[in-house]
Task: structure prediction
Amino acid sequence: MQPAAEFVHWMFATGFLLLGLCLLAQAIVGDEVWRRRPWRAYLWPGLAFLMGVLMWPVMVLYTNSTIHMIAHGSWAQTMMLAGGAELGLARGKLKSRYWHLTMPLAFLVSGTAILLHEQNGWLFARAAFLHHLTGWLIITGAIFPLATVFRPRATVWRSGFALTFVILGVLLYCDRDVAPVFGHISSQAGTPHR
Amino acid sequence: MSTQLVSEHAAVRRRTARAWAITALGPTTMLGGVVWAFLQPYRVTLLHPHGQGFWWLVIEPQILVVLAGIVFAFLIAPGVLEDLEAEEDGR
Result:
């Protein structure tokens, strides 16, 4: 009954897509409008925190290898840290804007973990190829949350931050066991599925 | 046309663009899921469910994309638009 890895990727992709849409809307209308309703200020930080919490069952149940457990655990921790810090900032419990630095930290740790936990020998498989693409997307995308710490009102950085999540969602949706373009190269790529 | 009228006209146009962008986000996302389903119908397992397991029938990426668009369009965007109009009206 345990879902295959790609289903988990697709569920997280939906979360990241919603996260990206919320951030994009906030970048478009500005903080003043977005925070007019108190619950909305907690929406995307809460979603980020929740996704961090949901990474724990992924860490526990998908124990393909030690490096997988460490990678999933590090994502869970950094996503919860970033989501929690943003919740604290939204609530006003945290005052320093430097708490926003937890988000680029989460990007860097998550991106590095994604790159490291996928074995190079699987590169011909779509999943591994996409993990490398995703890893580099997140690492390079860290520039956006980093820039918003110092230029919080710049629409270009905030939109880039939001779109990074949208693209991340798209890449995760594309995750399947093998792709026709790579899967034929080796039988080790597994049985082709939808 | 006076400078004041020109600037007011530009402000109205910018406001409209922001509201339009928020309105378009949800439907664009939904459209993305629908277009994807049309481009790769063989990946929509519900269209040929025979012999498929539980997860293949429940978790469909194209449908999840449409659902994300629906959630944003019906639960989030209306309130944002309302507050945007209120802010623009100076309320």
